Structure formats: structure tokens, C-alpha cells
Amino acid sequence: MYTGVRAAVNQIRSFFLPRMQVSVLHGNTLSLNSSNEVKIRVNGRLPSKRLGVGAKAGMVSTYLLCPGIPKPLYWLLRLTSHFGTGHIEMAFYEDDESVVFFAIRNILRSNLDRLGMRKQFRNLKFNSNDDEIVAIQAIFQALGSRGIKTRFAPPEECIELAIDKSLLNQTTRDQTIESMMRRYKRIKRQIETPNTSIQTKRD
User: Closest by alpha carbon to 102, among 67, 55, 146, 64?
Assistant: First the structure.
């Protein structure tokens, strides 16, 4: 993950997967407010077996155009994301009626916390829980403006699709799942609160 090898392999796999509705956002820029603009990347992923045969799944990656730290360093930090570009990543699948998002994570914040280096990167923008909500609301609005319906999955489905329970520590498994359930309930509630300060730019 830290070398960028995982991201390179995922990019190659994505190239051979079917195009998705969400791909209309690939390469676009979103203005989230007066000071933060993000670039969008969309990549396909192999769908979970739980979604059934023929399902399409992917990930939306967003990153800041003005991150608040040197851009070469920002680029290196983003190599730890699933596709090597994301600051915030959002996993989704497409069904017959809509695009269903089931996971969102601020990859950079999580990795900096894991390394104990968050204080060293205090100038990095998009470094709070609210930034995740603003980012996914922006994606929902951008897709909606193109006539694509979106929704966030129920917390129970998020847990089922986003977490491989076999990888969890058996001692703390129940506490971890309970914590994630609370997180996704909060995210779903916050996402449904309208945000009108978002503008979309097309390249």
C-alpha cells in the first residue's frame, strides 16, 4: 500500500472493467466552497460476490487542487490510496435504478493517524470528518444534475459490503462492528442534510 504497488495493480484491473454511469464525472472539477476545489477520478472495481452476477462496482476518488502542502508530497501521500489518486474515496455499486454508495473514507487522514503523523501535516486541508460529508454530497449533487439517481446504503448493508469480518480481530470484532454501525448511521444522516454551496466545472 505505501509503495503505490497496490494502486498500480488496481488501475490496471480497472482498465478492463465495464464503463459505469458514474464515469461521466471522471476528470471533472468540483468547487466545494470558495477555497476548496477537488478533482474527480472514477475507477471500476471487482464487485463483491454479495452483489450477484453482472453487478458493476467502483470507487470515486477526489483530491484537492490546492492541498495546503507541497504538491509533490501530496502526490506521494495519495499513492497510499486504492488507486493512487484519492484523498477521499467513496465506494459504490450500480443497480437498475440508481448508484448506491456504501463506504466513504478520508484515506490520507486515516493513514496519517496510523503513522502518528497527523500533527506534522496540520496544514493539509480536508482533514476532518465533515469533509467526507461535503465531498459525497458534492458527488450526489453532480450525479443528480446529470439525471443519475443516487442513494447511500442502509448501515447494515454498508457493514456487509465494506467490511471483511474474517479479517477483524475476534476479540474486538463486535465492538468494531458496533462502532462502524454508528459511523454509517451518522454519515447517512449527515448526507441527507442538503448542502447548496457546491458548483461543478467540466474540463
Answer: 55
Residue 34 reports pLDDT greater than 70: no
Q: Is the pTM of this model over 0.85?
A: yes
Residue 191: C-alpha distances to residues 131, 134, 153, 203 (Å): 11, 8, 11, 26
Here the cell at position 144 is: 443528480
Least Cα distance to 197 among 143, 127, 135, 144 occurs for 135
Contact 32, 130 (CB under 8 A): no
Q: Residue 41, SS3?
A: strand
Query: Model confidence over 111-128: pLDDT tens digits?
Result: 888 888 888 888 898 887
Instruction: Check if the beta carbon of residue 88 is closer than 8 Å to that of residue 104.
Output: yes
Cβ neighbours around 156 below 10 Å, total: 11
Q: Distance between CA atoms of 180 and 177, rounded to whole angstroms? A: 5
